[in-house]
Write a structure and sequence with these properties.
With 332 residues, the protein is an alpha/beta fold. Helix content is 44%, strand content 18%. The protein is built from 12 helices and 12 strands. The chain has a 6-stranded parallel sheet with strand order 2-1-3-4-5-11, sandwiched between helices. The protein starts with a helix and ends in a 6-residue tail after the last helix. The site of alpha-L-arabinofuranose has 13 residues, from helix 3 and strand 9.
Length: 332
Amino acid sequence: MLSRRSFLTGTAIVAVTGATGALAACGKKSTSSGGTGGSKTITLGFSQVGSESGWRSANTDSIKSAAKAAGINLKFSDAQQKQENQIQAIRDYISQKVDVISFSPVVTTGWDTVLKEAQSAKIPVILTDRQVDSDPSLFVTLVGSDFEIEGERAAHLLEKVLQAGSAGAVNIAVLEGTTGSAPAIDRAKGFKKVMDASDPSWKIVVSQTGDFTRDGGKQVMAAFLQSHPEANVLFAHNDDMAIGAIQSIEAAGKKPGTDIKIVSIDGVHDGFVAMTQGKINAIAECNPLLGPQLMETIKSVLAGSSVEKWIKTKESDFMAADAAAALPNRQY
Ligand code: AHR
């Protein structure tokens, strides 16, 4: 089996070859389902991770509105951050004989059996947002971000934040995303890669999951402040955890953004507001507006066209000083 690592590093963007079988099936299927040129409406079964963050709400809205705009019949289910719910939803979509299945996998492992079931039923699977650790021939493509690069971008933003202010020891606390999820694994990896090549004074003093939720960030940060009062930087794997952490930092009588520098990932509305208040110092954007790209990809795949194995999302970086000017134009 090809690992997710070799897929990510070895074949970052390639035309679909591994999914030839799936595409051949799609080619046949597009004749019967109509694809973009036919008259039959495409039915998409979509399994969402949950509703854990502002990013996720924006992603769900984007999927729903893009499906409507594209004339695609969407069957949508929310897995409440549980893999077993996603597997059940995918099995339901297979038995309903949908034309295509898409999902944002809560964790990277444990998908082989259900992906093989979809392949046997000749239903193409398009991943969105997050990667899986399965044989790449079991899915057609991934529409989503490069999380390792996001981790690297966050570390580079921290370099800028530190240049602009504090000196001395850099004691970093990390609020990780959901354990075993692609963004948690890859953002940690990307951040550490830059950190190891950067100033040797950078040290991760504590790192724990806050499960991508505001409440998780709040609780875990409260514990960090007790156990590691020397922490003067927070790297949060998403804005929601950073916002939760800000509440605990303020409750402990410290100033977020000053006593504890904060860098996070996403760029949701509330994250930008926290930047305008100087409470978050910088954000590496992760774009949740994947709906239009996903619908376009679905139509291409069902029409039998080849697509890239990883359709990446365009993203930007923001320092707190840019936030006020950028905020009115943010779409989520
Ligand atoms: O997979 C994307 C991540 O999942 C976002 O960064 C986070 O906010 C979400 O819950």
